[in-house]
Amino acid sequence: MEIKPVAYIHNDFKTKFAVPRQSGISDIPSTIVFEKEYCDENAVRGIEGFSHLWLIWGFSENIRESHSLTVRPPRLGGNVRLGVFATRSPFRPNNLGLSSVKLVKSEFKNGTLTLTVNGADLIDGTPIYDIKPYVKYSDCHENAVSGFADSEEFNILKVEIDNQLLNKLPKEKRQTLLTILENDPRPAYQNDSERVYGFEFAEFEIKFTVEGNTLKVKDIYAK
Prior knowledge:
Elements: E1 7-10, E2 29-34, E3 52-58, E4 70-71, E5 82-83, E6 96-109, E7 112-118, E8 127-133, H1 136-139, E9 158-160, H2 163-166, H3 171-182, E10 197-201, E11 204-211, E12 214-222
Parallel strand pairs: 9-12
Antiparallel strand pairs: 1-2, 1-8, 2-7, 3-6, 3-8, 4-5, 6-7, 10-11, 11-12
């Protein structure tokens, strides 16, 4: 079976570093832009009756030509091997991802069809292969058990940033960056208080350190 993108997603995540670990845990916005073949408002007729959507997409940045049947989940320190089908590892036999996002609005303008969504865990330019509405009576399971992920702790960091640095960003990007930093963008298995971490966000490079529960921004500069 051959599949092709129906759309591509666009946001301020230029690399996988600092992308939310799972979908739906942030309100960071993204825009889904449909390919020309699907730029017809009839393709999304009725979609605004749903608050959330499922995105089926591709791990387009994966460069591995082979895959393993076991992987090392970062949330377990990278030292424990589990079956690939028992994890959400991006390195999968078919490189397909599944994410639940919040629909903000749909828009058809000047021949372009777009969806604005919050909570995506995808990098800029990721291909979207299908979109389906989230249906709460069947998709929400109140008593679900989540294996090793049930023990995951979401640690919110205190962010220290000089206003002079923050003001380098466009005003509409500042709160988004603070949200990313508060949610600890480091890989789960890294905890070096001396290390200066960096990632690209909205055409800027962000440099920071983390000591304990405090993240300190060291520099922000345009790429």
